[in-house]
Amino acid sequence: MTDVTQISGRGRDLAKWLKTPWALIVVILTLVAVLDPGNFMAVLQFAATALVSTGRYILFAVLLLAYLKATGAEVMVARAFEGREVRMIFMAALFGGLAPFCSCEVIPFIAGLLALGAPLSAVMAFWLSSPLIDPPTLLITAGALGWPFAIGKAIVAVALGLFGGFAIKALMKGGLFASPLRKAPSTGCGCGGPKLDTKPVWKFWQEQPRRDHFKAEFVSNGIFLLKWLALAYVLEALLVYYVPADLIATLVGGEGVVPIAIAALVGMPAYLNSYVAPPLLAGLIDQGMSNGAAMSFMVAGAVSSIPAMLAVWSLVKPQVFATYLALGVSGAIVSGVVFQLI
What we know:
Elements: H1 2-18, H2 21-35, H3 37-53, H4 55-71, H5 74-78, H6 85-96, H7 106-115, H8 120-129, H9 135-145, H10 147-173, H11 208-242, H12 245-252, H13 257-270, H14 277-286, H15 291-303, H16 306-315, H17 318-341
Helix pairs in contact: 2-3, 2-11, 3-11, 4-9, 4-11, 6-8, 6-10, 7-16, 8-10, 9-10, 9-14, 10-17, 11-14, 13-15, 13-17, 15-17
């Protein structure tokens, strides 16, 4: 019986590992080695070199995120939802790009704000800007695509939040979204939400529990970023070596609105996450994708990623969910056009 239990446990562990980015990396590299051994070392070297060059950004991003978590800086975001509605929209859009929340933490955070009576307009401003940018994403985007693109994405995040916030404000004046919230969900993610009644402790090292929290966050986020970026650079290598450049240029290259709109529509189902996307887009840009289309792809994908959509769907009624997606996709296309012109 013990042997059967051990085998069963090992089988579950193996099945769990096969679902990880590490397993996908091994599978991809094995296939390249078997099917195209002549290019195996080139693909491996490309991915490894890109990962090493981004190492300093990964390290700084992990340290920053661990610091924000250990100090309890999430409470500063809650302060954006105090005061007049217009001010709340501006502050929510701004703080959305600074919030160090994972996709499951944002669910109880938003639920708490709506339950406390925060206006949907300000919450939507935060909700649209939050998936687009955070400190680690900003650094990783800068490492893969350069600081102009990273800063442009940060500006787009705030602008999209403002666009969505004021659009919801106008729609609510017309009588829509009087009762936007579903029944309060139960989150099984285990990480809980930020506590809104505490203050940040900037000198976290003076308290042992916070030091322990810093270490735990540093390790967990370091492993998280490393595995996803390793996968991203392996996929980028595949794009560079196996996807014809003229195909990319035909679909999302050149000027005009059409390639940008196509990139937004493709980005919705194809997007992985904000850590994988920048290296992939760097490869696509090298093969002919326009900068505007890259921005549109990134914005639409972040807003419509599975964690972001699940967070919205689990909390609000279908009409609010549909409005969220419409605002996100239309904002992605507009941001791509503007970024292309600039």
